[in-house]
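hiii so um. not sure if this is the right channel but i have a protein structure encoded as tokens and i wanna go backwards to a sequence. like what aa goes where. can anyone help
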């Protein structure tokens, strides 16, 4: 069966990913940029402001809000050190109490507090999160530079997590061997694979563990 050709910014079948976070990936970023084939101008550089909802009871469901829309992805498996995540749900505000109970707080793996109204606005939802002892709403700003190496979608990003600056670098594809080759080619072999959920928990002190460097 032929390999799927990756397209930046387009939906494909579920991908595997290598990603890491730290303070300095300059050398790997330099190699990634030099090895990249030309990519569409629209993905040369992208900026976004997002809210990640972090739960100290959950490490498998990744929840973020961007442009007023909620996106939850769930961890599927790790193969050869590469993680696979699939969409779990997408929702818009105002959001129903039923969806919050059955899908959102279930993903957080915590009890939902009593909510009187049948629908909840974005502002009301954030207030609920901020008052919950097991949850945190974390502001994340991303500046992402896109590349394509070995038919894998790559990026280098400067990320502000509640104002703390870290950098991230990644390679993702439906093909494991292509990612592993890219990791080797850009000089990231032996670097810890850290997903967004884990990185944010480390930065805000929910997990007592350093980033990759």
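sure thing!! here u go:
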């Amino acid at each position: 069966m032929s390999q799927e050709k990756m397209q930046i910014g387009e939906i494909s079948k579920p991908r595997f990913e290598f990603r890491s976070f730290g303070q300095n990936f300059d050398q790997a970023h330099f190699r990634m940029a030099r090895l990249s084939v030309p990519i569409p101008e629209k993905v040369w550089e992208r900026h976004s402001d997002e809210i990640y909802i972090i739960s100290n009871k959950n490490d498998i469901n990744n929840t973020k809000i961007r442009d007023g829309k909620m996106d939850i992805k769930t961890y599927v498996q790790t193969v050869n050190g590469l993680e696979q995540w699939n969409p779990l749900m997408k929702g818009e505000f105002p959001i129903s109490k039923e969806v919050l109970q059955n899908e959102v707080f279930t993903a957080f793996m915590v009890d939902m507090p009593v909510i009187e109204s049948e629908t909840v606005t974005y502002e009301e939802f954030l207030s609920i999160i901020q008052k919950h002892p097991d949850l945190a709403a974390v502001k994340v700003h991303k500046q992402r530079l896109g590349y394509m190496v070995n038919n894998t979608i790559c990026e280098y990003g400067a990320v502000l997590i509640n104002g703390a600056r870290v950098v991230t670098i990644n390679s993702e594809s439906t093909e494991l061997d292509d990612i592993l080759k890219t990791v080797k080619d850009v000089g990231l072999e032996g670097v810890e694979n850290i997903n967004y959920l884990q990185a944010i928990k480390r930065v805000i002190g929910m997990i007592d563990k350093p980033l990759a460097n």
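oh and The chain has a mean pLDDT of 94.
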